[in-house]
Amino acid sequence: MSNSRGVVEEVIVTARRRNESLSEVPLSVQALGAEALEQKQVTSDADLQVAVPGLTIRQTQGNNSLTYSIRGQSADTFSGSPSAVVSYLNEVPLTIQGASTFYDLESIQVLKGPQGTLFGRNTTGGAVLFSTAKPSAETEASLKLKAGNYDLLEVEGMVNLPISDQLRVRLAANSISKDGYIENVNTGEDHGDIGRDSARLTVSFMPNDQLDNTLVYGYSRSDGTNTGATYVYSIYTAEDEAKYNRDLNTSSEFIAGSVEEQRKLGYYKTQHPFGADHIGEDEVLVNTTTFALNEDVQIKNILGYTAGDTDSEQPALGAEYPTFATRNLATGKVGNEVKVESYSNELQLSGTAMDGNLDYITGIYLQQQRTDTLWPQTYFDGAVNATNNFRIETDTTAFYAQGSYRFSPVLRATAGLRFTEEDVSIEQLAQSDYRGVDGFAQKQDETFREPSWLLGLEYSISDSLFAYANARGSFRSGGFNGSAPPVNAGATGGGNKFEQETVEDIELGLKYEGNIGAMPARMNVAIYNMWIEDVQRIEFPDPPGDVASIAVTANIPEMEVRGIEFDASISPLANLDLGIAATYTDAEFTDGETELFGTEYQYGPVANTPENTLSVYAHSTVYRDGQGGEVALRAEVYNQSSMYFSNASDSLTPDTELPSYTLVNLRASWDQVLGSQFSAALFGKNVTDEEYFVGGMPLGASLGHNAAVVGEPATYGVELSYRF
């Protein structure tokens, strides 16, 4: 946190699409630079949750079914709802369909709360910004090897070449393999295997002082197995059926893998009868061109292409009797297939005016995205087979402008507005059960239009203390749920349509960066209140007739989220850094009633939102010498309170509360061993071998039982690296 002179190091972020000091950005932001990512052992999506309290990386169908959740805002699996927390790579929204490997990154920034004016219409919960390392003016290279338990072997390399003063090239690659940690006692297969190869090429061209063009191309291929929601967590009893007017013949009558049997097996064994293969490819291309018209005005164009192609068999509900599987036993089709392709272009004009008192940015954003989905399903050992096969296309056009005006050296006001029009269509494809069937729409189309806005005040109380207040409004566009019947009606009428969701919030923040006595310190606190209307949530109602249960997306009338976010760090000694981050989130459906197929549903509590999260760390440099290198020790503890994995746990889907848990991570490093270019480290994650859950599938009311996703057990290993 501090340098050797005991001064707080400045952290630069791009939360408002320009470089600013973290201590003076009027937003709740947590930023992790390259060094912090290494120290905190952030190498994949799941690691971010420990590093950034308040960000929940929810797993529904396992380790390759991930959803980011911030301040109670997320997207339910099978809902078709756009994510409320959008991840970006170099300012281009990503379409990654599985877990990622983080390598050669410059920083990760997590923006909390609605970001609709500058980062699009759907970021009602927040945004996660990944920035890749840029080519430098130095010829350099590095090689890193990592080995550990579960036969972990990871190789990472980087080469940076300044071809000339105008042209620079950087190539980075990563390859990782690791055995799974869940044993399938039926098939003998391990679930959670990782096999992933990734590479990224970056080329920067700067022909003069005005023009800068950077091209980034990345490719990743995964070949492993899913963990799945394979821990049978609870069953739907006869009493539940009577209470909620269901007729499922109860789990206890025909599901062999009951809760009691699962508990005998333990957390890391399952009896799913089928496979769990996951194969995926992801591509991303970003071309960023910046042209300075003069010292005060610049034009920036961001061209993006992202694509993902996955074939994944998700072992959901790990009972010996296959109540649900991602395969169609009648047709022989195995595994979910999802193909996503997105093109985007953003043209910006930004600069300063009015004697430097006004900072502004304005632009136009265009995006076309197409997603082809094939979902084969079997229920109750083949008694019911179904296949959803559909294409969703989304065309987005947005105009935005935002400006900050400094009235005095200590007072500044910000206003922003974005107008978005989004056209969403769905088409039934060849393998759909609804294809060519009378009474079902073959193609549907809806257009959604809504503004996003921001009003804010910023006040510099002193050189070290900064306060802000924001009021914001944003929205999440509506659309179609591809797993629901293609009927031109909403969920209440048994159709596949759902309306847009709107969010308004107020956030007050206080930031301190300076010294307490001789001790460098940093502190951030944010208090917020959010009001959400027409909340997009999934449900699995029991439709009329003898058909399988279906997933529909309902618009729940009202929800409110309020909370406090706090993080602080201090260096009481020159060689010791201490830090803490904590969040309190109070989320509730203030009006959670809706009706599906004539049945009243009551939503609550809010799923995937732990009330409390806490992270504390201590980092000590125990030895530092120019001839011998630097030896450091780090300990980090993360705690999360209990969390529900169903939004109807108080009513329709009881027994879906996951218990609290605590994780301990340790790392010991020796940089520049004996003054050489070698570095070494010992690492451990979850060193106490805590058994815990990271999400679940709430299918009790439709299939008779709920299943949870177990978190990763203790992992440890050694890391060796060399810089050329």
TrEMBL record:
One of its GO terms (cellular component) is cell outer membrane. GO terms for biological process: iron ion transport. Transmembrane segments: none annotated. It comes from the Bacteria. Its main location: membrane. Residues 221-686 form the TonB-dependent receptor-like beta-barrel domain. InterPro entries: Beta-barrel_TonB (IPR000531), Beta-barrel_TonB_sf (IPR036942), Plug_dom (IPR012910), TonB-dep_rcpt-like (IPR039426). It holds the Pfam family TonB_dep_Rec_b-barrel. Residues 22-127 form the TonB-dependent receptor plug domain. Keywords: Cell outer membrane, Ion transport, Iron, Iron transport, Membrane, Receptor, TonB box, Transmembrane, Transmembrane beta strand, Transport. It is found in: Cell outer membrane. The keyword Cytoplasm does not apply. It is a multi-pass membrane protein. PANTHER family: FERRICHROME IRON RECEPTOR-RELATED (PTHR32552), TONB-DEPENDENT OUTER MEMBRANE RECEPTOR (PTHR32552:SF81). Belongs to the TonB-dependent receptor family. This is TonB-dependent receptor. It comes from Spongiibacter nanhainus.
